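User: Sequence recovery, please. Input:
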């Protein structure tokens, strides 16, 4: 499809467009959302006092804690208008429920249609969907609806099952895969062990979900390099969440996920909930546009990133989002060094004999952070623990505690009961 007109508009035109939508959203929220009706009343906000994007600062931010405490108070429609119920993954706590109307499902389909179009996908493509549609998971549903709207083919294989994935690729010849990048490494490993000519298969592009494949400067990180060093496929990074019902997906330039201003108003905020300076990292905060069931105003994601506003050579004039630098609540202060889990992952992903891993952070007896990493290894080299610690010291100046287990046991730890995706970070610190 062609690029939506608003995404090729000037910054001023986009601003005016969003301000019109913002006024409509505030009036809607005051009328139908119990949570926002109470919030606005408590803070002396009325529909007429929010007219510009700058006026957003008058509205208190919304957090995950607010959603946990008042989940049902965010719903703006009657039960008979709700078509689908989805929940978040629960990676950081209990899952949150989101109610979607028919209009919301149409918005979801539109988002993935234009997002996948960023990768150059067309109705001539066939997508192999390597993520689940069940267990109230929004992502799989969103991809299916977007591909359907695009008019392309979709093969709903689901997650895992490398043998079934390759059998499907051989028989149906999909051109694009949608998958978690670490699973792609497992696909490659299975292919090599079973003499599958994966380098000449039909897959030419992979849309990567759930894990970062790029560094802050947009170069491929270790995970991205390990895939492309083995397999000459085009990788596209994407960032999304259930709460936003939208996605930031890279175009072929690979310089950040494109913002769709018709779906989201985006802010990057500092510790005091004020906008950061251009080019500085901040906490991604968004306001949903066009959501009917559960719209959100100034929702703080906890994810730290950078906004890039230069026009992209693909023709889009919208903001591009950097790779996520880390989650605010995941920041670790370890032996005088502040770091985020992705910096640990990048080192572990670069060690060939480490098959998988979990990272645990806990509070020690002097109330400071400690890091324990359990790696899945089959035949580790001699002195591998020292070697691993040397890698960490070289990159981060500090070395965590290292333990070992079998890759099979690590996989079980990564997928606790009812988990829909691998969990690699466990925060066991005192709250």
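Assistant: Recovered sequence (431 residues):
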């Amino acid at each position: 499809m062609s690029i939506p007109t608003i995404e090729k508009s000037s910054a001023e035109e986009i601003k005016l467009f969003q301000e019109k939508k913002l006024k409509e959203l505030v009036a809607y929220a005051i009328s139908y959302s119990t949570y926002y009706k109470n919030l606005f009343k408590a803070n002396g906000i009325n529909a007429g006092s929010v007219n510009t994007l700058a006026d957003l600062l008058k509205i208190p931010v919304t957090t995950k804690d607010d959603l946990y405490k008042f989940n049902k108070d965010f719903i703006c429609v009657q039960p008979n208008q709700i078509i689908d119920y989805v929940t978040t993954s629960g990676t950081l706590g209990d899952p949150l429920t989101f109610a979607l109307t028919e209009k919301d499902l149409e918005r979801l389909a539109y988002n993935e249609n234009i997002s996948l179009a960023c990768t150059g996908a067309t109705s001539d493509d066939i997508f192999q969907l390597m993520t689940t549609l069940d267990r109230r998971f929004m992502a799989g549903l969103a991809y299916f609806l977007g591909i359907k709207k695009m008019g392309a083919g979709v093969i709903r294989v689901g997650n895992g099952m490398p043998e079934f994935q390759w059998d499907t690729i051989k028989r149906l010849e999909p051109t694009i895969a949608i998958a978690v990048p670490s699973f792609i490494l497992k696909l490659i490993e299975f292919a090599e062990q079973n003499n599958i000519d994966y380098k000449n298969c039909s897959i030419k592009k992979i849309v990567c979900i759930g894990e970062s494949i790029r560094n802050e400067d947009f170069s491929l990180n270790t995970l991205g390099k390990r895939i492309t060093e083995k397999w000459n496929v085009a990788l596209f990074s994407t960032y999304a969440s259930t709460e936003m019902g939208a996605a930031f997906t890279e175009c072929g330039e690979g310089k950040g996920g494109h913002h769709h201003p018709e779906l989201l108003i985006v802010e990057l905020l500092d510790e005091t909930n004020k906008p950061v300076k251009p080019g500085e990292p901040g906490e991604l905060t968004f306001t949903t546009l066009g959501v009917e069931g559960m719209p959100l105003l100034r929702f703080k994601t906890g994810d730290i990133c950078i906004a890039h506003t230069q026009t992209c050579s693909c023709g889009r004039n919208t903001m591009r989002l950097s790779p996520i630098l880390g989650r605010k609540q995941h920041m670790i202060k370890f032996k005088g060094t502040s770091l985020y889990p992705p910096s640990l992952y990048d080192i572990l992903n670069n060690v060939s004999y480490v098959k998988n891993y979990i990272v645990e952070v806990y509070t020690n007896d002097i109330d400071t952070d400690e890091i324990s990493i359990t790696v899945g290894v089959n035949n580790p080299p001699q002195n591998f623990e020292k070697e691993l610690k040397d890698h960490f010291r070289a990159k981060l100046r500090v070395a965590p505690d290292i333990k070992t287990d079998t890759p099979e046991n690590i996989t079980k730890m990564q997928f606790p009961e009812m988990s829909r995706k691998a969990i690699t970070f466990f925060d066991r610190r005192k709250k």
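The first strand starts at residue 82 and ends at 87.
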